[in-house]
Amino acid sequence: MMLVEQTMIASSALPVWAFKEHLRLGTGFSDDDVQESVLGAYLRAAIAAIEARTSKATLSRTFRWSVPAWRDLASQTLPIAPVAAITALTIVDRQGGEEPIDESRFTLATDTHRPRLVSTGFLLPPIPVGGKAMIDFDAGYGASWDAIPPDLAQAVFLLATQYYEDRSAVDTSGIPSAVNALIARYRDVRLFGGGRA
């Protein structure tokens, strides 16, 4: 299985100025924008870490997930939430030939932690031996920072702050307890490898 971001978070969507205020950095100087790329990089790193811990996409973007076999022949749990739409399903054979599947043959079952691709008939299209299914979908809370739940946004700021303030230190202690407390309700304990629907 492989999950690939098809689109990246746009730099304009990152709350750099709000993060500056959070850090209480000085403003009104001629070189106010000098650190914008640095702050943006720390925000991206914190977002990536939070998303990895929670399996939740913060800002909306498009993903492609490839699977060699269905876990359940009638539905497949997606690896990240919240999912807004499944935009394409393609079956690829071992020679690389692609068969787009008509949208009428599948639907999205929304869920806070485990959204699913569900067959509208009895079974999902079969995946040939040595082939794969490619599922394209849009995931995230929204296109702007305001769409992200406030506690999740605060967790990103706290973690980005730690990255920014400890940028010269080598720290392997992991996620701070305050961040873990904020993201706890977004984490999904996966039993049976995510097979439970």
Overall number of structural domains: 2
Number of strands: 8
Q: Low-confidence runs (pLDDT<50, min 5 residues)?
A: none
Shape: elongated
Distance between the termini: 18 Å
Mean pLDDT: 88
Assign the CATH topology of the largest domain.
Hypothetical protein yqbg
Question: What does the radius of gyration come to?
Answer: 20 Å
Spatial order of strands in the largest sheet = 1-2-8-4-5
CATH architecture descriptor of the largest domain: Orthogonal Bundle
The percent range for helix content is 25-40%
- CATH class categorisation of the largest domain: Mainly Alpha
Q: Which class do the helix and strand fractions yield? A: alpha+beta
The run of helices and strands is: EHHEEEEEEEHH
**Share of β-strand residues:** 15-25%
Count of helix runs: 4
Largest β sheet strand count, sense and barrel closure? 5 strands, antiparallel
Quick summary:
The protein has four helices and eight strands, in the order E-H-H-E-E-E-E-E-E-E-H-H. With 197 residues, it is an alpha+beta fold.
Considering the chains and any ligands shown, give keywords for the structure.
197 residues, alpha+beta, Hypothetical protein yqbg, three-stranded antiparallel sheet
